[in-house]
UniProtKB/TrEMBL annotation:
<dbReference type="InterPro" id="IPR035587">
    <property type="entry name" value="DUS-like_FMN-bd"/>
</dbReference>
<dbReference type="GO" id="GO:0050660">
    <property type="term" value="F:flavin adenine dinucleotide binding"/>
</dbReference>
<keyword id="KW-0694">RNA-binding</keyword>
<feature type="domain" description="DUS-like FMN-binding">
    <location>
        <begin position="13"/>
        <end position="313"/>
    </location>
</feature>
<keyword id="KW-0547">Nucleotide-binding</keyword>
<protein>
    <recommendedName>
        <fullName>tRNA-dihydrouridine synthase</fullName>
        <ecNumber>1.3.1.-</ecNumber>
    </recommendedName>
</protein>
<keyword id="KW-0285">Flavoprotein</keyword>
<feature type="active site" description="Proton donor">
    <location>
        <position position="100"/>
    </location>
</feature>
<feature type="binding site">
    <location>
        <begin position="224"/>
        <end position="225"/>
    </location>
    <ligand>
        <name>FMN</name>
    </ligand>
</feature>
<dbReference type="InterPro" id="IPR013785">
    <property type="entry name" value="Aldolase_TIM"/>
</dbReference>
<keyword id="KW-0820">tRNA-binding</keyword>
<keyword id="KW-0819">tRNA processing</keyword>
<comment type="function">
    <text>Catalyzes the synthesis of 5,6-dihydrouridine (D), a modified base found in the D-loop of most tRNAs, via the reduction of the C5-C6 double bond in target uridines.</text>
</comment>
<keyword id="KW-0560">Oxidoreductase</keyword>
<dbReference type="InterPro" id="IPR024036">
    <property type="entry name" value="tRNA-dHydroUridine_Synthase_C"/>
</dbReference>
<dbReference type="GO" id="GO:0000049">
    <property type="term" value="F:tRNA binding"/>
</dbReference>
<dbReference type="Pfam" id="PF01207">
    <property type="entry name" value="Dus"/>
</dbReference>
Length: 328
């Protein structure tokens, strides 16, 4: 798949995820085969107010490519400014958020609220396209609720004003995460656009990825939650799509090593006092799959220093070596 001049190969992408897809996690996902990674969403309004956090979210690792910076907002002018910043930060693509279901976001008319306001949504895409030279993509849900499935009508309008790819999370805003994704929404959008289409929602296994590509006509698959504590999912999916065979799951050693790398990088990027609380849930995801690992996961919630976290990983590894790993 190509978006503008950017080659996306293999067609397996890491989803933008606030609180997760930071520089550390993007590097890990890329190392396991995710071909395009996207930042956490950056609020265009906060950026216009020179919020240090927003600038920080746009920082990329040296040489990090291809990478998208995702911006969120509903004011075309502010979104255009945010896109210019994203381009200046070195993004290969700028992605517009039209999926975020969070109340605080939609109450401002941002995120998935744009799915209800076609004129504004198109103005936002058009303004962003006009403001930058890099390709513009839109990540959207299928609609606000099941009585207003607007993505199949909106996507061709976005294509017409210059969007170069659409990522569809196959749920509505009202579904939040409570209902399973309905991949038929992806197929419906496929029928209406000729730009690259990225399918997203509930891909948990290599078989899911293949089934999504085959049944929807999507050009690529975007994976979010299934990568938590399991960035190897990108490698397993790629291998399965290439060879039709399964790679074995990672060993306990590999998991401990990855958890430690993630921990170190997060501490480097964010400092210990911010990184450790954020790493608690991440570590809990890595340290699973052994009988008795629930106890280790519980202990991750009390971690306060890097030394404690590192010691817990070592202890888990010792324990895991004596147990048979399962992947669940
Ligand atoms: C913790 C979390 C944070 C998320 N943050 C964003 C975000 O900043 N921007 C966005 O477009 N989607 C965001 N999403 C949605 C994901 O990108 C993705 O569409 C969704 O999780 C469905 O894919 P999955 O079933 O593979 O997880 C987030 C999801 C999660 C779980």
């Amino acid at each position: 798949m190509k978006i503008g001049n950017t080659v996306i190969d293999p067609p397996i992408l890491l989803a933008p995820m606030a609180g997760v897809s930071n520089r550390a996690f993007r590097a890990i996902s890329r190392s396991q085969g995710a071909s395009l990674c996207t930042t956490e969403m950056v609020n265009a309004n906060a950026l216009a107010h020179r919020s240090a956090k927003s600038y920080w979210l746009m920082e990329l690792d040296p040489g990090e490519t291809p990478v998208g910076i995702q911006i969120a907002g509903s004011d075309p002018e502010l979104m255009a400014q945010a896109a210019v910043e994203a381009e200046a930060h070195g993004a290969d693509l700028v992605d517009i958020n039209m999926g975020c279901p969070v109340k605080k976001v939609v109450n401002n008319g941002d995120g998935s609220a744009l799915l209800n306001d076609a004129d504004r949504a198109v103005s936002v895409v058009e303004a962003v396209v006009q403001a930058v030279k890099i390709p513009v993509t839109v990540k959207m849900r299928a609609g606000w609720d099941h009585d207003s499935i607007t993505a199949p009508d909106l996507a061709p309008l976005f294509e017409k004003v210059g969007a170069q790819a659409i990522a569809l999370h196959a749920r509505t805003r009202s579904d939040q995460y409570a209902r399973p994704a309905n991949w038929d929404f992806i197929r419906q959008v496929r029928e209406r656009v000729s730009i690259p289409l990225i399918g997203n929602g509930d891909v948990e296994t290599p078989e899911d990825a293949l089934r999504m590509l085959e049944t929807t006509g999507a050009d690529a698959v975007m994976i979010g939650r299934a990568s938590f504590g399991d960035p190897w999912i990108f490698r397993r999916v790629t291998h399965y799509l290439d060879k039709g065979e399964h790679l074995p799951p990672p060993s306990a050693e590999e998991r401990a090593q990855m958890a430690r790398w993630h921990l170190d990088r997060m501490v480097e990027i964010k400092g210990e006092s911010v990184a450790i609380p954020e790493m608690r849930k991440q570590l809990a995801w890595y340290l699973k799959g052994t009988p008795g690992s629930a106890e280790f996961r519980k202990r991750t919630q009390k971690l306060t220093t890097k030394a404690e976290a590192s010691a817990l990983i070592s202890e888990w590894l010792e324990h895991a070596r004596h147990e048979e790993l399962t992947w669940n």
